[in-house]
Amino acid sequence: MNYLAYISLAVYFIAMLAIGLFAYKKSTSDVSGYILGGRKVSPQVTALSAGASDMSGWMLMGLPGAMFLVGFETIYIALGLLIGALINYLIVAPKLRVYTEVADNALTIPEFFAKRFGNANSSIRIIAAAIIVIFFTLYTSAGLVAGGKLFESAFGLNYDLGLVVTLAVVVSYTLLGGFLAVSLTDFVQGCIMFIALVLVPVVAYQEFTSADTMLNFAYQSIPHFTDAMQNVTMLGLISSLSWGLGYFGQPHIIVRFMAIRSVADIKTARHIGMGWMTVTIVGALATGLVGIAYANKFGMKLTDPETIFIVFSELLFHPIISGFLLAAILAAIMSTISSQLLVSSSSLTEDIYRVMSKKESTEKDMVKMGRFGVAGVAIVASLLALDRSSSVLSLVSNAWAGFGAAFGPLVLFSLYKANLTHKAAIAGIVSGAATVLFWIYAPVLADGKALTTVVYEMIPGFAVSSVVIWVVSLLDTDPCAKTTKLFHKAGRVLAEDR
């Protein structure tokens, strides 16, 4: 690759590290600053940070690849995600911002679950934190693998070297600047992704004289739009749309709502976030669609459809722009890795170390432990990522459903059901996670396949967790007066803030 592309990438890395140093000086003197940016994050940064950490490399590689392979049916997944993100902003964001602050300034999702029941050291905090640390460590390893493969395929560098470079840059700014660094870098990375996903499909489309011509070439490989819409089964439609349910339980996304400056700013964040998400998802789908037509028109053989964005970046643009576009993929990967590292570290230090430690720790000690946590999770994730064919990656691919089913219903019940009980909350987490794992791995069908081949595991996992929480809350004793008092206090504060 031309050296100019490397210069573009180097500039990007330097910018990320500079943001980390800025955040280090700005907001890491106490735990609240390191973990939540002192709850002073602007709506603009909140919106793009949530979007960038949500979409990851899936937006620039996975979604275009799915459109390239499957065709217009992919639209339903995109639609499900858009609906889910919008509902998340509407019904989760405002209450979670207020309730976590009223609950004795809960800084993490597990801590909120615990303080929701008036006991900061309850068992649910350890259980939820353990799930986050385990699954996000695996999730992070997948992101590192993606980074290593990007350097290998796009830059012709050694896979291990690409992994190390990705890890070094992400860990540096996350370890230094904490939540503010992650949010600010996500903001920049979100802007890069936005530009890239508008630029690539528009430039690629210029190779065709009209939309009809482009579609005619695309229809040589994929079903016509009308046929694709008519051939979708009801279970297939429900499975695709149900991706949106996952938003309610993704710790690295909903923690952004906890850090925004005020409830009043959430409306602004929603408008920006949904606008960004709509444009980028349409751009990703368009990249895949134009990619099919381009491949058919020019007889281009693509062994891996998920690399269509990379191929366009290298074929159609000047090396400097090409470097910028490849940096967009890296930005998508790094934004999610940094978010997962910080959430994992926060749970490791705040929800496990602080609860189990017998000695009092100062604010500076906990910030230091948070940095050790980032490094520790990163090291374990990098060791897993050294084996690019590791079986953990198949588990990570289902982590969205796992988190959505384990935490999603409980987040909603915690915010909307006053008489939710501690036992019901634990039962909901365990049953949701267990159902997802059973649905993915149990070979119960006649041909030895798992139930995930019939319907997406998010649906049964979310449903089982919700029913279990409701039933156990009815059968269990009423929650203590302190718990209901906190719930109603949060409701009053929310009404005042609005």
TrEMBL record:
A GO molecular-function annotation: proline:sodium symporter activity
InterPro entries, per the entry: Na/Glc_symporter_sf, Na/Pro_symporter, Na/solute_symporter, Na/solute_symporter_CS, Sodium:Solute_Symporter
Gene3D superfamilies: Sodium/glucose cotransporter
Transmembrane intervals: 6-24, 75-92, 126-147, 159-180, 187-208, 228-248, 269-295, 315-348, 369-386, 392-412, 424-442, 454-475
Primary residence: membrane
Superkingdom of source: Bacteria
GO CC, one annotated term: plasma membrane
Catalytic activity: L-proline(in) + Na(+)(in) = L-proline(out) + Na(+)(out)
Nucleotide-binding among keywords: no
Keywords: Amino-acid transport, Cell inner membrane, Cell membrane, Ion transport, Membrane, Sodium, Sodium transport, Symport, Transmembrane, Transmembrane helix, Transport
GO biological process, one term: proline transport
Bilayer topology term: Multi-pass membrane protein
Entry-linked Pfam families: SSF
Subcellular localization(s) per the UniProt record: Cell inner membrane; Cell membrane
Family classification: Belongs to the sodium:solute symporter (SSF) (TC 2.A.21) family.
Role according to the record: Catalyzes the sodium-dependent uptake of extracellular L-proline.
UniProt protein name: Sodium/proline symporter
